[in-house]
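Module 6 notes. Inverse folding takes a fixed backbone as the condition and produces residue identities as the prediction. Think of it as a translation problem where the source language is geometry and the target language is the twenty amino acids. Below is one complete input and output pair. Work through it position by position during the lab.
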């Protein structure tokens, strides 16, 4: 009797497995047919590649009898400035847009965006970047999101700037993360003007989970940052991008390069973006300054920006300084950190242009096309 039950169970399981396999095969066969109407429409009308069209057809099936409806959607989007590249990107990200209603789901939202300060020139990029705008309710989602942004970003230009960096600001529910995060920062003493800067220049920060925001704020407060300062916002932007293990690894990296933990924290407090650099970049910069330029480690603590500059910028300035030293046009006890941190315009005027008569090839050296050995 037991054997009979076991055989029946095995039979049922095999039958179910076979049925699932056949269903999956039929679905895959339909989705993968290059000649199907869906694939042909996605390729010829929406501009998708064959691979993308085949992939999209697995989750979207279009009906040939409704082709005029799909074409009406595309025609309306083109009338609003979307290029073929915009449309291909949009359909690839959210193919169900093709099944939307122009009058009910698409036009009202585009009209809302334009009415609220989104310029015609930016609209196509915004929609292509985040077509999920069309899947969100206008009254219960998009309007509240815009209301939140307008509370902190008074100018339309600032809203556009933030959306260019993170279009998802419009499709996140503001009550879940954005508003609680802003309320928490205000309760911690962060000025509204600084929250505005955070949203404009690093909008992803305001979209973080509230628990992560709280942890990051507590961490940088323990390091000595004051919530009322703009440097607090810079540190927060970096800390939100780091896990605890990554932070510890970066601290240990600096310790392995010769700094104490206290000196590493001092570097971070002077230039928070250091901890956002890759370990490879940090190692390369430290190696160049200490071993090639023979810079005292104390100089880097005083001028931590040195570690975040692009290597080519530093190397070219170093080459200019070597030539000027050899010609005794600058002293060897110069303030290296100050020179390397000067603005491009100032450095060019003071160390390159000023000395072109005496060293004709100096500009080429500065641009990286000349040799220091022939000078």
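Target side of the pair, the amino acids:
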């Amino acid at each position: 009797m037991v054997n009979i039950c076991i055989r029946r169970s095995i039979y049922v399981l095999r039958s179910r497995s076979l049925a699932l396999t056949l269903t999956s095969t039929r679905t895959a066969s339909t989705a993968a047919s290059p000649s199907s109407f869906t694939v042909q429409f996605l390729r010829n009308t929406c501009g998708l590649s064959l691979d993308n069209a085949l992939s999209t057809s697995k989750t979207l099936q279009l009906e040939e009898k409704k082709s005029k409806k799909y074409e009406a959607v595309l025609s309306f989007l083109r009338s609003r400035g979307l290029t073929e590249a915009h449309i291909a990107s949009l359909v690839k990200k959210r193919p169900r847009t093709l099944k939307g209603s122009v009058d009910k789901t698409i036009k009202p939202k585009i009209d809302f965006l334009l009415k609220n300060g989104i310029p015609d020139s930016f609209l196509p990029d915004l929609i292509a970047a985040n077509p999920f705008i069309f899947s969100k309710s206008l009254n219960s989602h998009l309007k509240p999101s815009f209301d939140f942004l307008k509370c902190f970003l008074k100018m339309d230009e600032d809203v556009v700037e933030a959306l260019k960096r993170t279009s998802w600001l419009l499709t996140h529910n503001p009550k879940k993360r954005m508003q609680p995060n802003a309320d928490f920062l205000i309760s911690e003493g962060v000025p509204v003007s600084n929250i505005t800067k955070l949203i404009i220049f690093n909008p992803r920060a305001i979209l973080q989970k509230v628990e992560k925001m709280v942890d990051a704020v507590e961490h940088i407060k323990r390091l000595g940052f004051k919530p009322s300062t703009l440097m607090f916002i810079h540190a927060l932007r970096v800390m939100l991008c780091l896990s605890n293990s990554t932070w510890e690894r970066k601290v240990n990296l600096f310790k392995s390069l010769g700094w104490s933990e206290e000196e590493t924290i001092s570097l971070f407090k002077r230039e928070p973006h250091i901890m956002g650099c890759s370990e490879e970049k940090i190692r390369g910069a430290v190696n160049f300054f200490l071993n090639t330029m023979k810079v005292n480690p104390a100089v880097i603590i005083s001028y931590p920006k040195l570690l975040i500059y692009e290597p080519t910028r530093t190397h070219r300035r170093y080459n200019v300084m070597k030539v000027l030293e050899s010609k005794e046009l600058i002293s060897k006890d110069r303030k290296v950190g100050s020179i390397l941190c000067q603005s491009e315009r100032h450095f060019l005027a003071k160390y390159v242009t000023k000395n072109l008569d005496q060293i004709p090839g100096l500009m080429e050296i500065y641009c990286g096309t000349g040799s220091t050995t022939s000078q």
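Reference fact for the lab report: The radius of gyration is 29 Å.
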